[in-house]
Amino acid sequence: VFAVDTQLRHSLQHRCDFFYMAVIITAIPCNIFSLFVACQHIRQKNELGVYLFNLALSDLALTVGLSLWLDFLWRQAWVHGQYVCLISVNILYTNFYTCDAFLCCIALDRYLAVVHPFKYTFLRGKVGIAAMVSIAIWVTVLIFNTITVTLEGVHYEKLSRCFDIIYPAPQIVTRVSMVRFFVGFVVPFLLVGFSTWRICKVVKSNQATEEQERNRILKLLTVILLCIFLCFGPVNVTMLLHTVVGDCRNAKWLYYMDDVSMAMTSLNCLADPLLYCFITETGKREIWKVVDKCRRVLTGRNSTTRSPGIPSVS
């Protein structure tokens, strides 16, 4: 049985249309700019740039999935066929868990650099290692999604629906949802939380660390922790709750949670650029250059303003 209160849910979904449109329009230029900033890190042989580059790629891919999702909400029917539905759901799931993984890699990289500066040097400061880790993440997530995301579980041709839930959920869907929740959300959140806690202790007790640099490190980790908790927590919890509801008559409230949690997840496209455009030295410097060029174009002045030196978090 397909559980959905059409009038109320359609009203909520229509309200999300302009929200998704604003996210997509903003996210595309932000993440293209983020790719450029990440390339600057990579040129400087900074492994952080590899993870940032892959984050931006994942977010750009998500904008494609969101565009199809927006079309679905606007029409209130899926018109693109079963295989496009399957691809779009794969894109969404891939973004959820690659972003989680890359954010976790950034936090662990900072953990090793700050808490164990003289240990595990073979893992840090090497772009090649970061590239291999990134490839491994993409391959693992894509293979898992290819195996677990099936047409029967995401596309319902008679109802013209995509990425909705039918009840009762098959046993395999329940097991996959539990794996996604614990491996794709709980584990990364605990790792980032542990890294943040240990780094905070070391940074606060280390008098040699400058106050500005200390604040920048803590800001970076705070943004990562909030990204995982706020952007990916609700959607993973909602997917898990779907598996424990056996009767569609009791699941109406979960569909409202679906819409809200999906909207929160889409904000990840805008939250990730904060990591490199507003916290790292390279990001701030490039933003300052863009702002300065725009100012000179608008005012017709040829003066160049230099950005002040900012200590690097990497």
Automatic annotation (TrEMBL):
One annotated GO molecular function: G protein-coupled receptor activity
Task: Name the predominant localization.
Answer: membrane
Q: Where in the cell is it found?
A: Cell membrane
Keywords, in A-Z order: Cell membrane, Disulfide bond, G-protein coupled receptor, Glycoprotein, Membrane, Receptor, Transducer, Transmembrane, Transmembrane helix
Signal sequence span is: none
Pfam families recorded: 7tm_1 (PF00001)
G-protein coupled receptors family 1 profile domain: residues covered: 30-276
Its membrane topology is listed as: Multi-pass membrane protein
* PROSITE patterns in the cross-refs: G_PROTEIN_RECEP_F1_2
Q: What is this protein called?
A: G protein-coupled receptor 65
**Protein encoded by which gene:** GPR65
